[in-house]
Amino acid sequence: MEDNQTTSFTISVDLYGHSPATARELPEPDIHVITSGALRIPAHASVLASVSPVLENIIDRPRKHRSSEKVILILGVPCDAVVAFVRFLYSSRCTEEELERFGIHLLALSHVYAVPQLKQRCTKALGERLTIGNVVDVLQLARMCDAPDLYLKCMKLVAGHFKAVEKTEGWKFLQDHDPWLELHILQFMDEAESRKKRSRRHKEEQRLYLQLSEAMECLEHICTEGCTSVGPHDTEPTKKKGPCSKFSTCQGLQLLIQHFATCKKRVNGGCLRCKRMWQLLRLHSSICDQSDSCRVPLCRQFKLRLQLDKKKDDARWKLLVRKVVSAKAISSLSLPKRKREELQETHNHGIGSFRLYN
């Protein structure tokens, strides 16, 4: 009882989050909030009702006896958490210390009594204070209190550190008392892993399409300007010819062209490297829109063959062509306007073939 009197005295001075002079200007309290520890917190019905629609309904509820005292029972949470809650209703302020000590309790109270400002603050504070040890408890509370942002943050932490989380007491309690939430967590982890795999696969595919797009640019570059060891058949090699800006790709393509030009197995179709070169030439023909003036070998022939052939390209090849065209467009947009114009001018030449430089 002595402890309650001491706490009540402190509340009378500091309850409303204002200075003592401001607090004295308020009318006499007309209602009391009673906690689990039998603490009586004086309050004003008009203030509580204006902030919380739930408290307003409780206050307006008819009493059994008109002479009975107006009280609101807030049970099941620490007395100091209720004090912090009532103080927030008056001042819209909550200290970091209170959030540290009573964040979970204040989130529950803000949800039950529909105080969105406090709920937002508690959600943010709890999200910043998540640990392996408390994440399961906060996750359960976030679900019950309809706090989706906090819930998702907890799920991501559990998924990212599951081996550590499953050793905690909170996880063991969850397994015994809430199997549906456990199942949902495991499903979330499975979906997250599937998303990661899809993302990795998509990045790998995009990287492949960009590499093919770059190979198409290098093929046009070799056939129109020439590079270090391969160039157009009607152009004399220059001794000062240096590596181009995409020499890593260009060099590999030049080696492939040199092999293609001299391979004995190519005629019989028994060389994998030659097949790869045929595919690159076919891919170029499929995306080239200037076949009449294109200097890449066999570009026009591939297009004529496609027109004469009754069987159209298969769906997978068409998809590949679209992806490479898209990658080429994205790559060209990243270039300066002058460079794009220079690339466009390289098409204005006659049909030719390769020359291997000595």
From TrEMBL:
Domain of life: Eukaryota
Biological processes, Gene Ontology terms: regulation of DNA-templated transcription; response to hormone; response to hydrogen peroxide; response to salicylic acid
Key words, A-Z: Metal-binding, Ubl conjugation pathway, Zinc, Zinc-finger
Keyword match Methyltransferase: no
Gene Ontology MF, one: calmodulin binding
InterPro entries (alphabetical): BT1/2/3/4/5, BTB/POZ_dom, SKP1/BTB/POZ_sf, TAZ_dom_sf, Znf_TAZ
Pathway linked to the protein: Protein modification; protein ubiquitination
CDD domains in the cross-refs: BACK
Residue ranges of domain BTB in the record: 29-98
Record-level GO cellular component terms: nucleus
Protein name: BTB domain-containing protein
Organism listed in the record: Carpinus fangiana
